[in-house]
Amino acid sequence: MHHMKHNYWEGKTISPIPISENMTITQLVDEVFDGMGYNAKRLAEACHLFKTMIDDNSTVCLTLAGAMAPVGMGGGIIKMMERGFIDWIVTTGANTYHDLHFAYGLPVQQGDFTADDNELAEHDVVRIYDVYIDMQRTLIAQDKVIQAITSKAAERKKFPEKFSTAYYNKILGDGVRETSKNPERSFIACASENDVPVFVPSFADSSLGMGTSYLPILAGASEELDPKDFIDPSPTMDVLESAAIVHNSMLNDIPRGVLEVGGGVPKNFLQQTGPMISQIIGMECPGENYVVQVTVDRQDTGGLSGATINEGKSWGKIPKAGEGNVIPYLDATVGVPIIFAYALENCKPRKRRRLGARLPEITRELIEAARTNIR
Questions:
Q1: What is the pLDDT of residue 56?
Q2: By residue range, what is the domain housing residue 169?
């Protein structure tokens, strides 16, 4: 007699998809995707896990890599913040930079991915696959706006000696709210208004870093530049403040969740908060309770973007491999809007945590805990 260790037939029976007219996003996910296989099934699991993060009152982080802002992803992020579904963000400088175009009405258009790039360059058209951005009317105009906001804040002595990229983006978001015609179209402005910290650990690798580095020269600084002349966010403060958010959640028995859009530096920066607390500071930290990553990257190339979430168990980034995480291998421009829409249909708005306003307090809390641990 053959004995099975597992009940291999406990899953749903697969049938032809029950698609119908006027289906809602919830019906599409729960009645169609959830009854299929492959990445349709993974997307349904991702929708359900993101809902679990929210319903479980987790501290939720969004990590955002790739060129998501230029295709309008910011609109969904704004809605998530307004509903209290996203508490903090880690992204690239490119996404924060391109996000601002929409607040100022600067040209970002659909284009043609088969276009002649030599011809586009002759006409000052910058291409991101099938998105066109104008060199003069968008990029250079945006550079001037960012420099003006930053310079004005510096004149008002808004920058302390040490500050994080989250602090800088708060200043930037405040400036966008003051000076743009449509601040409601910028997720940086929305984050500023709702005290959602936005970290950019690769700040120098973007037009933000390029533009702010030029400010002392623009201001006519002397040949011997003083380091104090520069607007220079501190990587150390980024590491401490991000770890402090995780530590504060731990102290208050609040679960932690993350929606990772793509991979790259934002994914690693968020996932290193667990090892920062356990490996460096020496306090036990199990990592993120819930993780959804939407990616198209392969795991066999050695890059973190494609590394499975389960692999993070060995680094102390998740509590247990095989639980509380899912990866739909999908283009983020397809998968993430569906996850957002599913949350909007199925989750009640949450009270906003306003972590940005509390960063100094909870960072001091982490530092004191680290000092106590050393003793």
A1: 96
A2: 25-374
pLDDT band at 297 (very low <50, low <70, confident <90, very high): confident
Q: How many domains does the chain divide into?
A: 1
The pLDDT confidence band at residue 12, using thresholds 50, 70 and 90, is: confident
Q: The CATH number of the domain where 235 resides is what? A: 3.40.910.10
Label residue 133 by pLDDT band (50, 70, 90). very high
Does residue 3 belong to any structural domain of this protein?
no
Query: Do the domain assignments include residue 90?
Result: yes
SS (H, E, C) the chain: CCCCCCCCCCCCCCCCCCCCCCCCHHHHHHHHHHHCCHHHHHHHHHHHHHHHHHHCCCEEEEEECCCCHHHCCHHHHHHHHHCCCCCEEEECHHHHHHHHHHHCCCCEEECCCCCCHHHHHHCCEEEECCEEEEHHHHHHHHHHHHHHHHHHHHHCCCCCCCCCHHHHHHHHHHHHHHHCCCHHHCHHHHHHHCCCCEECCCCCCCHHHHHHHCHHHHCCCCCCCCHHHCCCCCHHHHHHHHHHHHHHHHHCCCCEEEEEECCHHHHHHHHCHHHHHHHHHCCCCCCCCEEEEEECCCCCCCCHHHCCCHHHHHHCCCCCCCCCEECCECCHHHHHHHHHHHHHHHCCCCCCCCHHHHHHHHHHHHHHHHHHHHC
Q: What is the mean pLDDT of residues 179-207?
A: 96
Residue 8 domain flag:
no
